[in-house]
Amino acid sequence: MLGVLDHGLQRGFDAFYNYAGASPNRPVDTSRSVVRRTLATQFRHLARKVTNLFANSDLLFQTAVNPLFVPFWTRMVNFKGNSERSIDDLIDYWKQYQAGGQEKPLFSFLNLMGTHTPYYPPSNHIDHVAPDLRRDRQASKFIARFNADAGAWLSPDDPPLPEWKRHVLDSYYDAEIAHQDVFLGRLFRYMKQSGALDNTIVIIAADHGEGHGDHGYKGHSFVVYQELVHVPLMIYYPERFPMAKRIKTNVSTRRLFHTILDLTGIEAPLAEDDPNADIKGLSLISSLNGRPDTERGVAYAEAYPPINLLNILKSRSPELVQLLNLNQVRRGIYENDHKLALVGDKVESLFDVANDPGEVQDIATQNPVLVETLMQRMQYFVAESHKHSLATVNNESISDEVIDNLRALGYFE
Length: 413
Description:
The structure is a single chain. By secondary structure, this protein is α+β, with helices and mostly antiparallel strands. The protein is 43% helix and 9% strand. The protein is built from 15 helices and eight strands. A four-stranded antiparallel beta sheet has the order 5-6-7-8, with helices on one face. The two termini are 21 Å apart. 23% of the residues are buried.
């Protein structure tokens, strides 16, 4: 999905393959004729223009999410890409790269979309994860309706989902994860058997989790509760990181940027006063080896409301948009065992996530001093980050279309 819209995330790569959309862009298939490859390239350009058109038009986007059309574009045009093909092609590319005797370091980024909605896991994974749903017709009908209603993937629950529906969503989600794990297992087996694992840094992370009625929300777009922002992060590099060790320090996935630069000895293209310029201090090498780092157990999270999804909710449930402040930015700041959540510039809640990982009990009124301290830290961090983010946008030739797409997806304010 990263390559479907023109949002600039493809910059800096020698090759960028996209497995989603009406015409996936895969490595060149030399078995096809030059004419067929040329026609496929032209069709791909056309398909991308159509995709961007739908992404930037409220009318077209809301038409596409009508339950009559959702089954078509989710099943027929590779909406979630193709994990199996992505990994097969990466393995083939790696084989050719090694066979050519290349000694230059190789950076590969693999983005898998299999666990996104809608959920269509193979039945054997459902049987493994939730055998109680094997012949549950009520569950089958519910998931079929849910998969066809794209608006339901992100709509807050009013009234709250009953437990059985949450169980169905959780189970189908887990089954999608299990299905994707099969392909990842194939990749790691190849890396081990070929010897590639001996000189490769492997980082596994997620950009977000998914809500299935937790705290009254579904999807991953509007809030910073744990089910969305507490994501897996695993690093395999025995030379610098302890093996099989779990680290409890709060860290942000944004610091993977600093970690990769630190490990590879690459200079950061940032101004000295940029809060992200401290590569050594923000590298996870310190945190994961039990040493203090620049942020000392403090981590931040932000959720900008995606404009295209917000417009769907405004037409679907305008009263909920206002009631739940879905048009405002939400932020979270972690310090040691505590997490403060903000809506705009107002306190939403304070949780002791170490002892209350489900974020059930708001303890903000019991800890006014801590709330004030965390608010001030968050305000300073946001002000500094925005100052340098805007400077970067103004100094680089980033098109209006790229900025609009980032804003529509919730990556940019």
